[in-house]
Amino acid sequence: MIRKAMGWCPNAASLNNNGKIDMVSYEGKLIDKIKDMGYRGILSFLHLVLGSWLIITAFSVLAKPQFFPWWFMEINIISSGILLVIGVSSLMIFFNFVKSANIHRILALVNIILLIGFSLYLSQSLVSSEFTYSVFDKPYMGYSFGFVTLILFTLIIGMPSILTFFNKPAGEKKSGFLKATSLILIIMFASLGAYYLYLDKQKDAMLAEDFGENGIYKLYRIQAGSASYYDDAHPYFLDSAGDTTGHHISEDTYKAIQFLQNKETGKVLTWWDYELEIKAAGKEPVISYASEAIKATIARPSSLYDKFEQDEKVADVSRFFTTDSEDVAKGIAGKYGANLVYISRQRMNDLIQVMMFAADPESMQKQNIKTPGEYSEKIKPKMAYKFNSGAELNYFDKIFENKDVIIYQLK
What we know:
The chain starts with a helix and ends with a strand. The protein contains 14 helices and nine strands. With 411 residues, it is of the alpha+beta class. The longest helix is centred in the first third of the chain and has 34 residues, at 29-62. It folds into two domains: 2-204, no CATH class; 207-410, 3-Layer(aba) Sandwich (Rossmann fold), CATH 3.40.50. Helix 2 (29-62) packs across helix 5 and helix 3 (70-95) packs antiparallel against helix 4. The protein has a five-stranded mixed beta sheet, sandwiched between helices. It has a four-stranded antiparallel beta sheet with strand order 1-2-3-4.
């Protein structure tokens, strides 16, 4: 099959009985070769191309592990593992190890089942962007598919297997080959499992501190040169298996968490992005996630099992931060029994726009802010801006401040 596909010895058919070569025209030579391959030959060639690309892609992703956030690493390992198995199975069809269409159909069916699993798995972790990059760039970017690109990718790489499965069978099944194939698949998945455990052990070696009951919230100290994003300003990663908002934090943020641990307080008002800091300090945030009304603002929902907050509660927290009135803010704090306000300074002013949308989506859509200067003037009266700038307030005392965090307490 390789010889035919590569066009080896193209003049063999023109040799006469005396060993002489008839003169042939090279016009249409490529088209003739394709025709000579036939339907099954072309189908087999598709398995070669896509199978090779899938294997290269899977190994390229796995060769560059990014530990944090760990759920991102899990997506890479599981998705790459599935593509790797599909790629190997496709090459087995191309090389025709067993000349039986029934065997090829079984391998194709395995590929189809794996692709269905691949699609269902990644549909739990969709991103909002569809065509910022091409469909085939998505695996190299943490399998960051949108719904449309995921369907396209699945159909493209699944087409050879679908056509092979519906191809007319010829030949007999060989149980020995099936057992060998099953063994190969088991070895591959076991190898991926071992790779996962190896990386997990490396991650555990970075653990600096854990918080909460049973140590559910974990703080990792990242070393320069490790298989993870690193910069001097954010040497820690705060994570939790049960939350989606794990992120890098600074030394100042770590100090703010330690400060909160020593406060005997009730609930904390902060945007949901920072709920991990609050929970790690042993306190309860008023909101821990977005509401369904603003789910379009979430960069990457974790799964089909996202636990959205009530629309009213998220809207109230949004109004707390975006109101111009300190009296209104005080009333909302009292409504939810909150007496602390946690401000992460680096992103707070940027998040005000999201909060304004959450508080009043229709009003926000009517805004016509064209320049950064206009936006800056728009947010200056907002409570979030006042908190972030360390302003002196009537109902709230500033009790903690450093470069990255400000904490206020209701008087």
